Amino acid sequence: MKKKTMIGVVIGMAIIVGGFVALPKEVSDQINPFVSKKDVYVQINAKPTPRSPGGADYTLIGFTENGDKQEVKFYASHELRKNAFLKVYTKGSYVKTWEEVKLESLPKKVKDQLIKSAL
User: pLDDT per residue over 53-100, tens digit each?
Assistant: First the structure.
């Protein structure tokens, strides 16, 4: 009886792990409790990819509060203001939401990195 139970547990774990592997990364990041949440700061400095019938997809390089570089991909229902700064709430590659922020409210390491990357 114990051998059958062990085989069932192994098969169950394989199905769970296989399910995570089969999901798109941003979906698995969203539901995975071991993926940490981070704020990533970006500047709108690239043209978005327009969607039909409306909205736009953005792929931007941003920085965490520690100055670590991270790529973020997200959708906006309209084209965002050029050179605006955004605080993007992420969990791995999943973007939960974003909001526009002022230059003065950016962490120092983020300001330094954004200025350096703009040159």
Answer: 889 999 999 999 988 999 999 999 988 999 999 999 998 888 889 999
E strand residue ranges, 8-48: 37-43
- Which tokens belong to 54? 């409306």
Q: ∠ CA 86-78-107 to the nearest 5 degrees?
A: 0
**How many CA within 13 A on the CB side of residue 15?**
6
Residue 79 dihedral angles phi and psi, to the nearest 5°: -70, 130
Q: Token digits for 40?
A: 């990533």
Pick the residue with more confidence: 49 or 10? Answer: 49
User: What pTM, to 2 d.p., does this model score?
Assistant: 0.76
Do 58 and 76 form a contact (C-beta atoms < 8 A)? yes
Spatial separation of the C-alpha atoms in residues 74 and 25, rounded to whole Å: 14
